[in-house]
Write a structure and sequence with these properties.
Helix content is about 35%, strand content about 15%. Strands 1-10-9-6-2-3-5 form a seven-stranded parallel β-sheet, with helices on both faces. The protein has a three-stranded antiparallel β-sheet with strand order 4-8-7. Helix 1 packs across helix 2. Bound molecules: fructose -6-phosphate.
Length: about 260
């Protein structure tokens, strides 16, 4: 695992967007794993700008989102399909037929999960997976005690997650209690993982995820097992990291990051 510390939220989001753009330019057929949430909005803004101003081409790439709420119509403003259409898909030249999210309205949710996994396989697996992290340490909606080898499935949301996302719905009682999410095992199979966390409220969970012991209580700790995982944080989210100076040195000195400095 590699940790990159950036001075602020804008710089951290910009770096993540530039890594995506780099990989997409290197492979126009990139299979891109996507996340939703407040943190990712800035990343998608950068990608839209790069598409409009720098001709970043999404026309051949395919996408798979991590998760979707159970029971919401795609047109529901709180569905993740709506989020993706709004923040990215309708603003770039992607072919909507190549964009995939689990169907939270499927009659048979179990079969939908199996089909989603099969679809990812049919596309040759995910090349680059974007990730956020929840306050309880989830990636996707892999809530505490998610098996480290779990696959796409329906997961009940924890009180912490309900509280985190309730403001979007106007209260916890109005939000779905379950979501379909890629499993931790599904995420670990992606060829590269890129996690972004910003703000003071993520400092404690980032320290646990990156420097703490691997535990299913914090699904993000499983990323320590991934051979190619980069965690990008801003200074606010880095305040609890013990080895922050070492991480800063890496970004300033390692040739891999030269183009991003
Ligand atoms: C959503 C997802 C979640 C979020 C996480 C952080 O697709 O995968 O794991 O990334 O809950 O959300 P924000 O960015 O709103 O703090």
């Amino acid at each position: 695992m590699e940790v990159i510390i950036q001075p602020n939220e804008a710089a951290a989001a910009s770096l993540v967007a530039r890594v995506v753009a780099h990989d997409l330019r290197a492979n126009p057929h990139l299979v891109l794993g996507l996340a939703t949430g407040r943190t990712m909005e800035a990343v998608y803004r950068h990608l839209v700008t790069m598409c409009l101003q720098d001709k970043l081409d999404f026309s051949l790439c395919s996408t798979f989102n991590l998760d979707e709420y159970v029971g919401l119509f795609p047109s529901d403003p709180n569905s993740y399909r709506h989020y993706m259409d709004h923040h990215l898909f309708r603003q770039v030249n992607i072919d909507l037929r190549n964009t995939h999210l689990p169907n939270g309205l499927a009659e048979n949710l179990e079969r939908e999960c199996v089909n989603y996994e099969a679809l990812i396989k049919r596309f040759g697996g995910i090349d680059l997976q974007l990730l956020g992290i929840g306050k309880a340490g989830h990636i996707g909606f892999n809530e505490p005690l998610s098996a480290l080898q779990s696959r796409t499935r329906v997961k009940a949301l924890t009180p912490t997650t309900l509280k985190q996302n309730a403001p979007f719905f106007g209260g916890e009682d109005k939000m779905p209690r379950r979501a379909i999410t890629m499993g931790v095992g599904t995420i670990l199979e992606c060829r590269r993982c890129l996690l972004l966390a910003t703000g003071q409220s993520k400092a404690e969970v980032i320290a646990q995820a990156v420097e703490g012991p691997i535990t299913s209580m914090i699904s993000a700790t499983a990323l320590q097992l991934h051979p190619r995982c980069t965690v990008v944080v801003d200074e606010a989210a880095a305040t609890r990291l013990q080895e922050a100076d070492y991480y800063r040195w890496i970004f300033q000195n390692e040739p891999e990051w030269e183009a991003y400095r």
